[in-house]
Amino acid sequence: MEKSKKDEVLTTDEAIRYLKISRPTYFKCIHQGRINAIKVGSGWRVLESELNRFLRSGKGRSKGTPQPS
Length: 69
What we know:
The chain contains 3 helices and 3 strands; from the N terminus they run βααββα.
C-alpha cells in the first residue's frame, strides 16, 4: 500500500512563494473565489492541493503568458 502525501496547510507567505505571485494578486484571487482559502485569526490558510488545482486550471496565468503546447 502506498503512503499518500500529506496535504500541507500553507500560510499566505508560503502560498505566494509557491504560486510565484504578488500578495495583492493572491488576495484578489481569494476574494474572487479563484483560490479557496480559510481565514484563521488575522491570517489566511490554504491547502497545497488547492494551489495545485489553481495552477492546473490555468487561472494563475496572466493574459500575456502563452499556454504550453
